[in-house]
């Protein structure tokens, strides 16, 4: 995910901190959509289109996607 986001944002992967909020990384709605499509294609899962609004970091998005690949539901902390 870091590599995909780095490519979309046209930045070196070293500048993409998986614990930093998407908004601080410069992720807008178009970037979020691109990232979600790439993730769905790579993992062969269908993601909730609003997930990036509820999950604020790459780490939390990865945990969500990982659980989906295992057939488990994951709820983000409130």
TrEMBL record:
SUPFAM superfamilies: ACP-like (SSF47336). Residues 1-69 form the Carrier domain. PROSITE patterns: CARRIER. It comes from the Bacteria. InterPro entries: ACP-like_sf, PP-bd_ACP. It holds the Pfam family PP-binding. This is Carrier domain-containing protein. It comes from Reyranella soli.
